[in-house]
Amino acid sequence: MRAEIGSGPHTAGHRVLARWLLGAEWRSHRGRALVAIATIALGVALGYAVQLINSAAFNEFSAAARSLSGEADLQVRGAQPFVDESIYASLSNDPQVALASPVLALDVMVPGRDGALPVLGIDVFKASRITPDLIGVPSPDRPFDTLASDTLFLSPAAQRWLNLKTGDAVTLRSGTSSVRLRVAGGLARTRPGQRLAVMDIAAAQWRFGKVGKLSRVDVQLAHGVDRPRFKRDLQARLGNPWIVAEARDTESRTDRLSRAYRINMNVLALVALFTGAFLVFSTQALSVVRRRSQFAILRVLGLTRARLLRQILLEGTLLGLLGSLCGLALGYAMASGALRFFGSDLGGGYFPGVQPRVGFEPLASLLFLMLGVAVSVLGSIAPAVDAARAHPAAALKAGAEEVALARLATPWPALACLLVAGVLTRLPPWFDAPIAGYLAVALLLVGGIALMPRVTALIFRAASRVGGTRRRFGATGTLAIARLANAPGQASIAMGGVLSSFALIVAMAIMVASFRVSVDAWVTHLLSADLYVRVASGGNSGDAGGLRLDEQARIAAIAGIRNAAFARITHLTLNPARPDVALLAREIDAADPGATLQMSGAILSPAAFHSGEIPVWASEAMVDLYGYRTGQRVQLPLGGHGQVFVVAGVWRDYARQSGAIQIRLADYRRLTGDTHATDVAVTVEPGTSVERVIGGLRALPFGASLDLSQPGEIRARTLVIFDRSFAVTYLLEAVAIVIGLFGVAATFSAQTLARTREFGMLRHVGVTRAQIFAILATEGGLLTACGIALGFALGFAISLILVFVVNPQSFHWSMSLHVPWIVLGTVAMVMLVLSCTTAVVAGRGAVSVDAVRAVKEDW
Fold this sequence. Notes:
By secondary structure, this protein is α+β, with helices and mostly antiparallel strands. It has 4 domains: 1-71 and 251-404, no CATH class; 74-245, no CATH class; 452-527 and 720-795 and 809-859, no CATH class; 531-709, no CATH class. Strand 14 (561-572) and strand 15 (581-586) form a beta hairpin.
């Protein structure tokens, strides 16, 4: 028999033995295997679904952006939204330019519709050679509609959105002006879901008040021209007021804008997978301990250590493989359902106007398949190595289970993980993402869990000494504490499940709560006026139009208004590969900018400005993305060449992660000549009701184009947007809770079933079933309480990394720390009750075994 099991040539016998051991284990403990598989599957499914959704949305959005560029080699546009059309003549006459096509891009409002309608003004003769997809398709009987001044062409998605057909009239709104146009037909080709309107560029300039202005010029170079060199020379010739970009820069802008959100969603999804890895570890560890004597017999009969090691790793690999395959199928279904019913942005709002369809991605599928198998194998390595190293003679003895787990109490690897985690928190972001921060969180989790055997032994041995000297715990409590003190290895596995799940719950709850409270405080600080007025605009910047000076005067003259503070919101392009920077021109007191902005850090006093320098205030994102510092002199594409701006302070901005700059309204108007306003902060006279002022604003001739909001409404709307953006985070947090509780239940179930002989001995010496149940409940309560306490400490440490390292590096803003005590207390109580209940329910099967037969197993 020894030769049959141990000799090399008998591979068929080894395969039979492996299948027999695997089948016997799964048949006898099918429930725990299914829980482990389900956990791995859920973790893989969440990560795979997030990856598929974001990938499909990003690819579709990029394709839609490329369709707007067509065959252009370069795009020349201003750093400001609109540029003088003289640049078009200059480029057309350049001998290295084969074709130049002018474009005017606007975001306009449609009364009765939420969101903006992008309108492109094009030269149909030029665009037909560079962007043929954007050409309107007129009716056969009206071929010159493409040049008419009162027509526009709508994409199929825009027609469905507006419920219009060819020949219908549509009213568009730019600022306070209304423009009535006729739908002359559709477009040659657009992406599914892409809302777009196209009209003649001269008509668009005239109708929307942009005469002499362009947004960009699409350039097609002559054959043989060195594009990189031409781009570099043209940029140097035009200077920083102009941006020379390539089509790929648009994709880079979109990628940078959504990268942090996509990475964070994937990491949060992998939280469930990490919890599943620990569940596999606890399942395999307790399985190895329970089968220790069986493995010892096989070793005596000739099974080698290598064969035994491969056997246990095979079990873990199969758990991971089955879980991963199920997870891929579930993730694909989840992604398809999410794209169909909830849209493509998962609450982030980064991919508007597209209708992506999920597709099978071989590389991503293989990656998540390997990831699921890898975490399962990693969870099986420690138990497999321990079983292979065990001496058969010692393993055959009863009571050797705790010896098998003694190696887990070694603190040095755990301390090394914690030390490396501390070092990683001090590192800058890698590839514009907090990779080091996430690695620090993972190492902190691993190190904290690895310390549990030592911490468990210290805690319960101290409790046992206190109970022995004072005799205050009673018989049930004394037995429970003695068991935990003398078997810290098995106790630490159970407590590790509680620790990992509760630590992740604490970390994510503190991070979300801190963000929400900080956003609430930020909004409250900014909303110091009684009423806020905004010109209805679908675009974020309001560049399509605004309030003229005469309209501003009429608003300020309304009875009951004490002060009307006007503001202009637009944007600047500082880097073609990065998203635009918001430019906010408003009334700011340079001596006290904190009255209107939530400042963070030092503030430069007006006395520090040199003559001719203009103060600006940069958001925290500008510090990370562009290196702005208080007191630094910078150049912005505003005003004449050589104008110097000084960064007078840094302020907190939760609305724009791509960066924002505040400038005094008077300085902005003097530099640009733009006197329009997009926002008004209205302070009402004492004793005058806000409703009366609202009525006066509505009675204005342009009152229908104004959006009016009170501070309470803006605050409530902001928090609703916040909760919608974090809806996926809440879902993933709930999934992590469920998986963590599954792990606790499975661990306690495995431990109580493995202690059948122990319960039989207790029954022999007179301990009743009720007392054994009380012992189990006490053990479950003590372990869970200890795991919750240590899990809170570990989760709090992780939350510090999330709040002060990961979020600033991901989204470029800071926040204050806030602990949601009520939520965490509720979750802790639920886990405590569930753990105690699980311990008792699992113990019923072990206690029901005949006491004499259970003790006989201990040979």
